[in-house]
Every structure is written in C-alpha cells, then in structure tokens.
Amino acid sequence: MQRYFIGEEHWGHRKVTIYGEDLHHISRVMRMTSGDQLIGIHPEEGPALCKILNVTEDGAECAVLEWLEEDKELPIQVTIVAGLGKGDKLEHIVQKGTELGAFEFIPFQADRSVAKWDKKKVPKKIQRLQKIAKEASEQSERSHVPEVCTVHTLQQVSQLKDRYHWWLYAYENEARKKEHQSLATRLKLVRPGEKVIVIFGPEGGFSEKEVSHLEEKNFLSVRLGPRILRMETAPLYFLSSLSYVFEEER
Amino acid sequence: MQRYFIGEEHWGHRKVTIYGEDLHHISRVMRMTSGDQLIGIHPEEGPALCKILNVTEDGAECAVLEWLEEDKELPIQVTIVAGLGKGDKLEHIVQKGTELGAFEFIPFQADRSVAKWDKKKVPKKIQRLQKIAKEASEQSERSHVPEVCTVHTLQQVSQLKDRYHWWLYAYENEARKKEHQSLATRLKLVRPGEKVIVIFGPEGGFSEKEVSHLEEKNFLSVRLGPRILRMETAPLYFLSSLSYVFEEER
C-alpha cells in the first residue's frame, strides 16, 4: 500500500489532510479517489491506515481507520558520516542506507575528498539528498525519515561525540592486517536503544592526520570483512550486519 | 599495490608475462617500468608479488618474488541469481556483489522483469558484466574473479540445484509477515566450504507462479530485515550478513 509521510500540523482528531507533492502523487500518479486506502505516517505516532474521503485540488482528506503497530526501525540509531565523493556516490549512500535503516546522515569534507561542494550550492544539494531519503523511506516501508545534515568538517563531527554511545570509523587498513579488530568485537558491546556514529572516508580513504585525530578522540576502528570496499559499499555492509545481528539473529 | 589477473598460460617457472589491456594499463596508465612491483594473480595458485624485469610493446616480463598467503575469499561459495532489472541495476549488483565476495552471478529473465534483453545483445552484455566483475575483483583485492553466466530462465536455474548445498530465495513478503523465517535460521545451517545459491526477484518481485515453482523445488525463503529492499540492495544485504557471520564473528 502507498505510504506518505505527513507533517504533524496536518493531523486532526482521527483525520488527516494531504497537500503538495503527495497530493499530486495521490490524484495524478496513483489516480486514487474517495474510498481508496493508503498509509499515512505521523512523525511521532507512526503509521496509520487511512481511507480517502475526498480529493480536490486543495487537498486529500482522509479518515484514520487504525493506528498500525509496525516494527520496521533498526533498534540501534545509526548516524552515517560519509566523506564527500565523486558523482552520485552520496546519493547512493543515502538511498540504500535509508533502505537499510540508517537514522541520520552527515556528509563531511575529508582531506582526500576530490569533490568539493561550492558553499552556495550546499543547501540545494542537501535538500536533494533529503528528498531521496524521504522517497527511500516510503519505498522501504519505514516510519522514520533519516535527516540529512549539512556538510561538516571532521572536527565538527568529533564534537558531536557526546550525543552517541559508540564512536566508530571504518578503516580500510584493518582489512589488510592479520591482527585486525573484527566488527563483531565492536557490535557485541552495543545494546538495543543505543546510538552509534560511524565515519566512512572518501574514495582515497582517510588521511594520516584524520586517523590521528580520530584515534585521539577515541573513535574505534572497524573492519568490514577482508576485502577492500568502495566508499559507497562500506556503509551498506555496516548497516546490513547491524540489521542481521539485531533483527535477524535475535 | 596494483593487482592483475593473469591467465594460466602466461605463467612460467618463477616468471610471468602480461599482455593486452593489462599491459596497456601497466605501461600507459600506471607508467610502471623495470624494478616496479605488482601483484599477479594465478587462477589456481592465487596472488604472487612480482617485479617487472622489462616492459615492451609486446609484453611486460615479471619475476615472481614470492607467493602470497592471503585469505580474502568468502569461505562460502555464493551464487547470486538476479532478475533482469531496469537501467544499470545488474551492473551495480555485479560490481558491489563482487566486492562483497560473491562467487558467481546468473542473470534470469523473471516474469515481472520489465527489462527484456535482445537475444543478439546478450553476449555483449554478459561480456560487459564480466569486465565489471574483473575490475571489482582487482579493486577489492580478491584472488577470484566471479563468473557472470548467460541469462537463464527460472527453470534452468532450478535445474542447477544439485551443484549446491543450500537453495534460497529472497522473498519480500517475508519482511511483511509477523511470523517470518529469519535469515539467521537459514545461515546457522551453512558450514564453511559449502555452496549456496540464492535467487533475487526483479523490481516487481516474484510472480505467484515463480514462488510456487521455487516452493515446489524446495527453495527456502529468507527475510533480509523487516524493511523492503530494492532489487539491487537485497543481494548486498545477503552477502554482507554472510561475510559478517563467517569472517567477522568467527
């Protein structure tokens, strides 16, 4: 069933009205009319089964039939920090990372980021990534849309530490070491309900200076299997493993 | 260090010669000359540290300095069967699936595949996917290049069953069920050294007919977390979880 994230201000007593792009999607793309059902997602209350009462150019009025009990959110809140990459790599990370349950994304300007974002264009780029996150949330049937934060420096990222229980970074050299730190050693410490921040470098990996900074700030390095993963594949490995451990193995 | 997969016929006694596209890459792209080192990968013996003795237009002659003991291959041989998808989805699956350790790929013409491949164009498309697999193997530092097989029908796929120890398919409806079959229940049965075949549907999922066929042939359905994944994300979840279980948790 089609799902729409609807701002808090549009919900009334067992009623909700849909406007804007979602209204266009309902009337023009899906061609839904009164009597048709959809799932409306309240930012706090979660998903509700709704029935369309009336569709006009001004809005789609729906009755709330039933609040649904769904459990599709990862029990760990994961913040993915990703170095700016070439082409559409960040878009891939946000789209697939959202499907895989990420809670939040922070792009960061790494020493070896070949891509540099023009300051004036940052708000537009973030807006576009935010739209991708919303669409991927709807498609993957989630009840939370991850926030895409503005571009940070590594220093700004490490200052956010206190908000999280665990601070990790994916260091490709771990994959090359015989005596590596396995991802399982780290994940075994994490408990449901906790918040994790994990940093991924750009195409060329972290600079030595960045690694020293992360070590100094007590970020823990993780290995993601013995193979060297591309920058856009590594966050997907991390999220998939976390989902496996907390949603499939338990 | 740069890695090249080199056909068996080009290896001599503690010597190897590199030709063709790889020679071009060595001389023109990397601008390597005598004395430079690279890793040559023998199809049976695996990776060897090599030193260039001489580069001409006819070939790059190298001395084998040392056979390397690397363990970068997943201990389970996974065959990924993926429905034909729109655009570059299959290319994504092959590229990222190779990074994540897949052993082999089989594209299949599913009932709901919107993409139809013109018969005449199949060999060229497979050749292109094979090239992507080779490049991804080099980049991720593997010692095996996954084979990309030609397009199969589902019937042809299920006839291959006897070659494998485990037969799975990723069924999106498992993600929507309360009483689902967890991926962990299935993976707990798999032992290192075994072969697994796992089938993924196209954008629209499997048809009812295909599901009946797979059930009849005793393929086991798996859930990949509670969220609905895109066709190109599902194989990456499967391979990442397998790597986590067999390479990080053990």
TrEMBL record, chains A, B:
Superkingdom, taxonomy of origin: Bacteria
Known catalytic reactions: uridine(1498) in 16S rRNA + S-adenosyl-L-methionine = N(3)-methyluridine(1498) in 16S rRNA + S-adenosyl-L-homocysteine + H(+)
Pfam family, one: Methyltrans_RNA
Alphabetical list of SUPFAM superfamilies matching this protein: alpha/beta knot, PUA domain-like
Alphabetical list of InterPro entries matching this protein: Alpha/beta_knot_MTases, PUA-like_sf, RsmE, RsmE_MTase_dom, RsmE_PUA-like, tRNA_m1G_MTases_N
Record domain Ribosomal RNA small subunit methyltransferase E PUA-like: where: 18-64
Chief localisation class: cytoplasm
CDD domains xref list: RsmE-like
Keyword Chloroplast: no
GO molecular function: rRNA (uridine-N3-)-methyltransferase activity
Compartment(s) where it occurs, according to its Swiss-Prot or TrEMBL record: Cytoplasm
Record field: transmembrane: none
Principal EC category: transferase
GO terms under cellular component: cytoplasm
UniProt domain Ribosomal RNA small subunit methyltransferase E methyltransferase: residue ranges: 72-242
Enzyme Commission numbers on file: 2.1.1.193
Family: Belongs to the RNA methyltransferase RsmE family.
Biological role stated in the UniProt entry: Specifically methylates the N3 position of the uracil ring of uridine 1498 (m3U1498) in 16S rRNA. Acts on the fully assembled 30S ribosomal subunit.
Protein known as: Ribosomal RNA small subunit methyltransferase E
UniProt organism field: Halobacillus litoralis
Lineage: Bacteria, Bacillati, Bacillota, Bacilli, Bacillales
